[in-house]
Amino acid sequence: MTTSFVRSELVTPDAPPASLVGxxxxxxxxxxxxxxxxxxxxxxxxxAYKLVWSFVDFTIVxxxxxxxxxxxxxxxxxxxxxGACWPFIWAKFGQFMYGFYPVEFRWRVNLTYIIAILLxxxxxxxxxxYKALNAVLFxxxxxxxxxxxxxxxxxxxxxxxVIGWLAVMFAVVLLVAYVLxxxxxxxxxxxxxxxxxxxxxxxxxxxxxxTGLFAEPTMPIVETRQWGGLLVxxxxxxxxxVAALPIGxxxxxxxxxxxxxxxxxxxxxxxxxxxxxxxxxxxFATYLLPLFxxxxxxxxxxxxxxxxxxxxxxxAETIRGGLQAIPKGQFEGAQALGLNYxxxxxxxxxxxxxxxxxxxxxxxxxxxxxxxTLVSIVAIFDLLGGLRAGFTDPQWASPVTLYxxxxxxxxxxxxxxxxxxxxxxxxxxRLNTGRRR
Amino acid sequence: xxxxxxxxxxxxAPKVAFFNDPKIRGYIFQAVALAILIFMIYSAVSNAVTxxxxxxxxxxxxxxxxxxxxxxxxxxxxxxxxxSYGRAFVVGLLNTLLVAVVGVVLATFLGFVVGIARLSPxxxxxxxxxxxxxxxxxxxxxxxxxxxxxxVLATMPGPRDAYSIFGNFYASNRGLxxxxxxxxxxxxxxxxxxxxxxxxxxxVRSWAYKRQAETGQQFPVALTMWGLILGLPIIAYFxxxxxxxxxxxxxxxxxxxxxxxxxxxxxxxxxxxxxYTAAFIGEIVRAGIQAVSHGQTEAGRSxxxxxxxxxxxxxxxxxxxxxxxxxxSQYLNLTKNSSLAVGIGYPDMVSVGGTILxxxxxxxxxxxxxxxxxLTVSIITSIFMNWYNQxxxxxxx
Lengths: 437, 397
Fold this sequence. Notes:
CATH class of the domain at 85-179 and 248-392 in chain B: Mainly Alpha
Helix content of chain B: 55-70%
Structural class of chain B: alpha+beta
Structural class of chain A: mainly alpha
Oligomer: heterodimer
Largest sheet of chain B: 4 strands, antiparallel
Order of helices and strands of chain A: HHHHHHEHHEHHHHHHHHH
Shape of chain A: flat
Radius of gyration of chain A: 30 Å
């Protein structure tokens, strides 16, 4: 009979003590690991509770939901300390959303929003097909449509003139190519006929616009002076965002160009614009553009020019970061394939660079969206301007009007920016394929 | 040899059409760009001349000597309505710098608190810091300034019912009223003592570092420095016979009298700028601290350093390398954002300049002065921060 004093199998490990696992363990580790920590937890929880509760209490619990004027929101009439005065928002809703856009035409604004959402949502969801077509529609066709809808005027003419300009530009490029091929004594390029044809189409389109044959059908014009509220906020933000990309790409390429003149001009523009506050750029656009141009452009248009240049300069630095991250081998590879500069940039470098900096671009968009509030300083009536105008209405003057207005506008601004920042994180994670293990 | 055939053996490069030669092409592009630029400048100038003549505005900075004739609610240098536009602009510039300096100091402090709180092992604290950053960063700055100004400060009670803080400070819708220091003639002595103290502190510091490098002996540097900087002026204060007194504000029946008042526009602007910038600085600080590998902390522990020394000597210096460049741009952003003061009427450079612009119509000159001032401030800040950045940068082979 043998007796072994050596165990033949391992002892099964005990379960960790109950105080270290599960909710109890989590609480002990994260909330009460030491006495100072416990004090911090309690103080922090109290502050958080106070803040969240006072917001919920104000906007929902003690709020007044219906009423016709300030009487509805006075403590004495209602019988309790009134929170948010939502009837004030309902009454001013049109002003906050559309400014002085005529009531009977507000469907045009709404239609623009609906089309924008229908085009934008599939663009943002990666799984939806036809991205290229979608992008062309959103960035190419939608702006003309939106302008026609919002501003009014002739319905066909803007399309015709855009087609005309594009065709003329295209034809000129072809003709220049033809002239060069003649100088080089190469056989005459076969696309000369197309060039002439396209030029003819372009010129005839522009002539048609001139003759006024298509001045009808028209929609009543709504001057930009009458635009306001969230509409202006969104118009300024969208135009700034859409214009920022091409301006930014051009300036970023210019900054990295080997041509000293081009590089100097790009650097100078970028650094000057980035070195001064947006408000001075807006003042520049508002006060100096009319001085420097023969005819003074529309007030909103001036602001749009200022915002576009400003956001373009910031976008240029974001894109430059992306360009700098592209390895030299990519440029050399493109050159080895015999690609010229536009093709090297357009086909090889820019797609990679832009993809790298998408989060940066989205962040620039968020910044721009917030910056649109500054247009209210140069007398353009955006959401914040509408809010301030709403405060001055004596019919709704009550102690809670201010807070209600700020809560409402705050929720709108926060939702837009928060959505954009979440989307940027989502894109970042999706594009992070190379570094993910 | 004619065009289109291969070059004969002998090494002449294949002839390229002149417009395909990158060098010539470059010249052509630049010439075109220059021509467009010159044309734009020419037409802008000629239009401006015509328009200015029509509006009967004389170009040039001569108007700066004219009498301004408007009041400014906060001035750091003496100001009267009879003084010139030029001086008004300087008053505005100083107000901008005041907001920028106060804002940068407070935002750095709050930003570090937020960034460290974000990394706290305490779940509640890190969540609060997280939501602070999310909420503040996603609301426009002008919105926040207006909120503080219109919804918080303007709804404070009037001077009659002003809140009293510590007995000598009063907060009302007119701003924050506090004791006003009165400097006697001998107060110059205190200033001299302070300057001497600061210089002496830095001399002691460099001597102590040198001695430590040579002999290894340590010297209580921080304690001595504080002693010199704070101690000397205090000694001077008593030696010169206590020349500083305070004029305390008193609450009368209808108004507050005496003391000095910080205007609510300044308070609203500083609160909003500090809160907004601190959210961004908090994220920068968090990223900087997270960029220091945990192995560095562990190495410090294995050397037997205390947690405080690990933080001071190992983690923070390395984190600062990551933090400084983006921190610089936040400082610049804060300075530029202070121009939003015009939205609530705090008399900064843009606000005062806007008043001058409306009165005189000298748009080109005023906007050029704004841009010049902001560019100068930006350049000075970045030069200083770049110098500091180079000093702390990692030195490699």
